[in-house]
Amino acid sequence: MAYGIVHYFPGGTKEQYEASIAAVHPSRESLPKGQIFHAAGPSAGGWTIVAVHDSKESWEQFRDGILMPRMQQGIKGGLTPPPQETAFDVHNLQP
């Protein structure tokens, strides 16, 4: 079952997002293994990122193997963790 994650970074900016995404995604043309959707943009008072993975397990592998280690190392100019997080089992995913 697909698994969705919403991260909200209060005070986050486009510039911080760009620095962060460059550090955790393989490229602008591809998504990390298991991720099937990614969207991000400004929201009230900060920056919101929405990702959908093919399963909760692939999200956990990305989170534990790539995202958290790189954020804990510090990403110069990147978003400041921790974000406000909402996770959900995806009921309907359309192209």
UniProtKB/TrEMBL annotation:
Residues 73-95 are annotated as: Disordered. This is ABM domain-containing protein. The lineage of its organism: Bacteria, Pseudomonadati, Pseudomonadota, Betaproteobacteria, Burkholderiales.
